[in-house]
Amino acid sequence: MPKRSMNPIDAHVGARVRLRRMLIGMSQEKLGEMLGVTFQQIQKYEKGANRIGASRLYEVSKILDVPVQFFFDDLPGEGEKPIARPHGFSENGSEPFVMDFVSSSEGLSLNTAYTGIKDSKIRRAFLELVRVVGGKDEEGGEAA
After folding, report:
1. Is there a smaller number of Cβ atoms within 10 Å at the N or the C end of the chain?
2. Cα separations (Å) of 36 from 31, 47, 66, 106?
């Protein structure tokens, strides 16, 4: 029996579940407990390996306190190519890579800390520091 390939929509919905879960600081174990499934099942949902059924997605939306539509936000429209999960750092996969980072615990911590900086001059200086360390100029190109 051939292995079923991951559906990009399932992967997108799963990534949105992970993003929201992490934004509110909930563990996979806690979400699984509230849904009556194991944390391994939550991992499979979040990776897009297992599809989330409609009734279960509705439950998830109530637990995570978002409308069901939240999980479909930013999906490519009709006629557009679905966003595939990147396997590297290619230019074509740069947007999904950024979303993967932003929804990681490291990305969420960085964003939370950054938005906690009240002084706009310090925020700009910090952003410039990160750009320089990362080898990028203000426009996102390579720094000299």
Report:
1. N
2. 8, 19, 19, 28
